[in-house]
Amino acid sequence: MEQVDQLILDTAERILADHGGPERVNQAEDGCYPVELWRAIEEAGLPLAWIGEDAGGVGGSLELGLALIRQSARFALPLPLAEVMLANWLWVRATGQAPETLTGFALVSPEAVQLRAGRLYGTLAAVAFADRLPQLVLPVETDHGLQLAVVATVDCSLGNQRSLAGEARNEVTLNGVEPVALAGASELELDDIQALTALVRAHQIAGALERMVALTVTYVQERQQFGRALAKFQAIQHMVAEMAGESALANAAVEQAARVMADPSAEPSARLVAVATAKSVTSEAAGKVTQLAHQAHGAMGFSHEYPLQQYSRRVWCWRDESGSEFYWNCRLGHHVVTQLRDASDGERSAWSSIAQGF
Amino acid sequence: MQNIRFNFPAPDVDPTVETLRQDVRAFLRGERRQGHFRPGTDCWCAGIDPDFSRKLGQRGWIGVTWPKRYGGQELSALHRYVITEELLVAGAPVHAHWIADRQSGPLILKCGTESMRRDILPRIAAGECFIALGLSEPGSGSDLASVKTRAEKADGGWRITGTKLWSSGAQICQYMTVLARTASSDAGGRHAGLTQFLVPLDSAGVSIRGIRDMSGVEHFNETHFDDVWVSEDAVLGAEGEGWQQVTGELALERSGPERFLSTFVALEQACGAIAGEELTDHQLATLGRLLARIRALRSMSLGVASLLQQGQSPDVEAALVKDLGTRFEQEIIERLREFWPITQGPDSDNELRALLSDSLLRQPSFTLRGGTNEVLKGIIARGLGLR
Ligand SMILES: Cc1cc2nc3c(=O)[nH]c(=O)nc-3n(C[C@H](O)[C@H](O)[C@H](O)COP(=O)(O)OP(=O)(O)OC[C@H]3O[C@@H](n4cnc5c(N)ncnc54)[C@H](O)[C@@H]3O)c2cc1C
Question: Which of A183, B78, B255, B306 could form a disulfide with A94 if both were Cys (CB 3.0 to 4.6 A apart)?
């Protein structure tokens, strides 16, 4: 990570700590949208991390953007930073320009939406923060290949669905919506978009898990029972060690996948394998760390006031979004077995499929 | 609030690393084709074949990171990593030289006398000299500082008396590093007064008895030292530095690919065996999960290697790799049982079934050797500030 990158991450941390925090997160869930926090994030240019400097952005690397997203999850950010960053990344890749209006992102299966006579029809399930974003960009499969459509959310009808964490995940219905902009996806493939989306969720999980471990470490040091800190009981020490292991493993997986995705010489198969690994490992860790963190916290962790729940509910949601561990395990297994099956020289191995690169 | 961040730097990759990998793969394929070895599970512990180690030495694949004047190649830690992971996934019989290459050689390089370095390191690198670890004793396992083996100054050297237990491969080794008490533990705490010696195993008064393990392999040993005389030069580093040396090696010992790849051969065979069949999503997901976790463990283990190369001492991170990795290499077999029930002994004609049985019989040792997982968790907890 370069020095400039570290500066940006430090700025983000300051903003998230100063303007965010557990109380804000609860308020956001109660319907009080943290406008000031979002303003500070925008003023710092964070949503433009992946937009080149020539298009008015920060010109950050893929890795920086993902690190930023991981950072935001350490604070359970109840705002669509990741979604806006994804939308910006897509639109810039397709058109060379940043969207002029704040735009979110909806990844849909190609069959869910059709473009007929210049109008969009279909239903998108669980679009993150759709009710807070003036526009959405969505990939659409058309007769001319993959296209990116930008729609104004006022033209759509939105459902009122919430995620486990109380964040908006609206059902968006397109009933003959005319896109405000349409662009060919240029060299982008749906697989790449899906992979980056999954990697974003994986980074969010990894960030949240770090904070869950930290919360637990602090709690068991402070809480006393039987005349000593919980941290002094070996059973508790082992639970926390186990959580730390899962969290570290999640970090290693998302960092490695970010490197592969950022490497222009990486083959598509290497990207698939890296992202599948990251999402599988983080999603599995989400379940384990949540269970252990709550066990170590006792009833306090089950209370709404104590912040642990903000993270557990988020990771429970993120682990099943963009493909759960079951989905990605299956993709990875299928990929490796297919490569083995197709090998003609007898020299292909499962090992060679998973151990390309570092 | 304390913020815990485990960040694992990317290894520095140079193109010769991949070339080396291909060379190692080609060599291993050739050896297998000629029937020089059969892929074995837990090969870095159970696969003892001095001839095979010698062949690796002749190719220059042992001690690769050491200075050339001591028989090394002055290659990077990543080069060594790639050699070791390729040997492990091939199930090659590499135990004979493994400990010397991983741990005793680097210890001699760091703490040994110049004559030890000149005399012993080139022979290790040639695959001709093997070293056993003499740490555990009948009464000292996890509580290693309680060792009873004593060394006393005498006749211009030292006299060692005691029993070392479970030393892997000692029956074929020329030397053993022996952790002995050289001063009472009252002065300076129980970690003080411990010294490591490099003891030639052909010394008068040494007797080695092989111990058969539950998988049928006679790979570990009981070694008696009955008033064994060694020269002053046999001391590793300085008197009293034994504990720091033993714990200083741990990051190296605990984070390598052998901590999650011991049973990979079985998984590889399993993938090969069913690749031709019509697979259910459940089967694919089971295999995919195992492969994903191996990849993540590998990234973490490589990250620790990078931290080591940067001169840091990632003891906690290394303990995390070993705790997760060793439990996982056990889990691989537990998952594969679903598709291949294990009931037969390891001498089955079917290669996959033999590997699965053998893996199962060896797997209780994974979470014990080199520090039990409970001890590792204690180290992690201390790193997190809980103790
Ligand atoms: C295959 C194999 C190869 C080996 N090779 C070598 C070798 O080459 N050289 C060598 O010196 N040794 C070797 N060992 C020995 C190994 O280092 C010891 O087995 C290990 O250190 C544990 O010691 P122990 O077996 O005496 O178990 P013990 O220490 O008696 O432990 C028994 C159980 O109690 C638990 N326990 C112990 N203390 C605590 C505590 N404070 N809190 C919680 N739980 C605790 C342990 O985790 C374990 O589960 C080898 C062992 C194996 C299995």
Answer: A183
